[in-house]
Amino acid sequence: MKNKKFVFVAIGILVLLTINSYAETKKLKEIGRFTLVRIKGEVPTSEVMKILLEKYAGDIKYGFDIAGYGDLYLPFLEQIRSGSVKEKSMAVGDKFMWMLFRSKGKIKVVKDLEWAGKAPLPVYTFVVNKNYKNYEFVMPKPCGNISLVGIEEVIPDAVCSITVTPVKMNVNDAVTVDMSGSQHAKSMSVDVFNGSGTKVASKTLTPDSPRWQMRLPEPGEYVFKAGAVNIEGTPSSNSCEARAYVNFAPICNIWTNCLPCEDYVGRPITFDASNSTDQDGEVVKADFEITDVSGNVLDTLVDSDAPFVWEKIFDKPGIYTITAVVTDDFGAMSKPCKLDVEVTQKSWFFFVEAGPLFARGSHAYYAAAGLGVSCFIIPDVLDFVLGGGSAISLNKAPWKSFFMAKALLNIHAGRAFFGAGVGFTTKVREERTADIDLIANIGFDIFNNFTSKGAVFFEGRGPIGEDKTFKRHHKYMLGFRFYF
Predict the structure, then answer these.
(1) Which residues of 63-78 are buried (b: 16+ CB within 10 A; e: fewer)?
(2) Is the pLDDT of residue 85 over 90?
(3) Which residues is 63 bridged to in the sheet?
(4) 73-82 and 46-55 helices cross at what angle (nearest 10)?
(5) Which residues pair with 330 in a beta bridge?
(6) Do 441 and 366 sit in the same domain of this protein?
(7) One domain, residues 73 and 200
(8) What average pLDDT does this structure show over 313-335?
(9) Do 355 and 437 sit in the same domain of this protein?
(10) CA dihedral of residues 171, 173, 179, 180 (deg, nearest 10)
(11) pTM for the complete prediction?
């Protein structure tokens, strides 16, 4: 029994010594026998080191997995491929957290090593960053093994980044604020200030939701001042702002060459928007519209060529509203500008007339001419004619030339007209006296330009008086009358 107890105690002491020996830091006195990469001699340069690591990438991945650092494999390769590699020496007593090596063709890992050689160990060193930690790796030059020597927790400062698109826009266009370029940020914020320095909007963003779409309701320049904080709440220190400009809409101005537009039916009226302005660009288009008093659209014009003038002829009197909207070179449209114009038709005309005249009473022929005035009491419906002239006799005595006058009312139906009135003629023969006549006429407008027109007419006169029969004293005239 005593011998058995002694054996158990001895085994227990041996186990404890074995465990303790495994827990202690292992001393690495020499290196180069169990190399991860197969190479004779030292790794001569960092470029050769990179080539070897690419060649043995599969073995390295396996080694990272058994070391418990598989998530560092891809960042490790990325650092090797694109990052910087430095050279340094590890002093005697410096430690390795773990080291990958090859033994009997198999990849193995040994942990908790201390360099215990006789001289400092030359190594290539590089740092892999992941999740705010810096992992320092080394490759001893004599062997090409990979070792992790230290881990440093690093919480970098947040770096703020902001872009605003578009940088120039019209009022109420969509504006996108993008802070996705910010780095190491837990959250981001942006304040929007107008040209006078007044804050008009603000927003807090996150890396998961780094964009903000907004609208700016007033023209002018805006400044977007932004910032970011890291996971410790430390604000970014770099300058971080953007600017955007909201285009000013043009200002419309319209005028006309007649106000009031009296007697302008049939005459060209000019509507001019050339005095419209744009403080940050130029006017490139004008849209005109004409409406009547009931709001009905009568005509429109789009003018894309300066000076933005529209010449319009109205064929009816009335009150018309002319509306213009101008557009600038950035597509902004002005508020409508309006002009009310009362267009009246010419009602007073001078006229001249001429034509052959026939006088009854043994027949006599005359060449008649006259002049006078005409007034449209109701435009295009009822006019009053007052005129006078002379008839030159084409016959010998006792016929004589005479003077005549007339006052008529005419009713118009389109181009045709007819009417009646009274007149006066001096005596046409020595033995006769002057006559007071009843007059009837009928005619037709050959042309009508509103400001001038021409008509042919037939006019008959009969005297008033018991001793003056129509049969012997009537007169007929066929003539042409020109109004101006």
Answers:
(1) bbeebebeebbeebbe
(2) no
(3) none
(4) 140
(5) none
(6) yes
(7) no
(8) 94
(9) yes
(10) -170
(11) 0.59
